[in-house]
Write a structure and sequence with these properties.
Helix content: 40-55%
Order of helices and strands: EHEEHEEEHEHHEHHEHHH
Strand content: 15-25%
Bound molecules: fe (ii) ion
Strand order of the largest sheet: 3-5-6-7-8-9
């Protein structure tokens, strides 16, 4: 039985660079389940040029329901925000990771992190908790690793990608990601799975973390406890029973 809670993936067709068809999304979910994921968040991108219009949200929710039906795990909906000025005017509760008060937002890959910080501060005024996606992959943090500490010390949850820990993105990002783990600044490891060649797997990163930091800390990075979501045996049994009937 898997226990991973993965807060970051692109397994639901949404018009972005993730799964393009429902059948592809289901396949990604089933692969994740087979590799130990019990609860998977689908987090379609909300980009400055691909915002969450009412029409897009309806399409996403329709696709989400179709993927979830045969996912083989518990699929939940969230979003991944890319900082953009209009977010400063919105009710950000719209974007929560389902069943939590947390919102996933990425560090811009290039440029300043000022807008990210401003949006996260706004989240807090709305009773929300920022989850900072893959800081280790971004220029602002690669150039100034202390920025990651500044974000974590505000109480914001850092989420590194499993693929960073397993060196998919090169040795510099791998070293930075492990450095953040070693310093106790990371709360969550997510897959950021997009497609078959970049799957929503966490098992290899978990194995590496188990060796590096020991079972207790490794589990806490992968079991969703950081956002108050854990895979209970009830959920797992229900999902397995449902899958068996399909
Ligand atoms: Fe992502």
């Amino acid at each position: 039985m898997g226990f991973f809670v993965d807060v970051h993936s692109h397994v639901v067709p949404s018009g972005d660079d993730g799964a393009q068809r429902v059948v592809e999304g289901r396949g990604l979910c089933r692969e994740a389940a087979a590799h130990g994921t019990a609860i998977l968040y689908a987090t379609p991108h909300v980009w400055p040029h691909l915002t969450l219009t009412d029409e897009r949200e309806r399409e996403i929710r329709t696709n989400f329901a179709e993927v979830a039906e045969q996912a083989g795990l518990e699929l939940r909906l969230g979003f991944e925000l890319t900082p953009a000025p209009p977010l400063l005017e919105q009710d950000l509760r719209r974007y929560v990771l389902e069943g939590t008060d947390a919102v996933l937002i990425e560090v811009p890959f290039t440029g300043s992190a000022d807008l990210l910080i401003e949006i996260c501060e706004r989240m807090e005024t709305q009773g929300l908790r920022p989850v900072i996606a893959h800081p280790e992959r971004t220029q602002p943090v690669l150039e100034r690793p202390s920025l990651a500490r500044d974000l974590a010390e505000r109480g914001w949850l850092l989420q590194v990608n499993g693929s960073s820990l397993t060196a998919r993105h090169g040795p510099g990002i791998e070293a930075l990601a492990w450095g953040l783990v070693d310093d106790g600044l990371v709360s969550l490891v997510g897959s950021d799975g997009h497609r078959g060649t970049r799957p929503a797997w966490l098992h290899d990163a978990y194995a590496a973390a188990f060796v590096r930091v020991g079972e207790t800390q490794a589990r806490s990075l992968f079991d969703g406890s950081a956002i108050g979501v854990t895979a209970t045996p009830d959920v797992t049994l229900r999902e397995r029973a449902r899958s068996a009937r399909l």
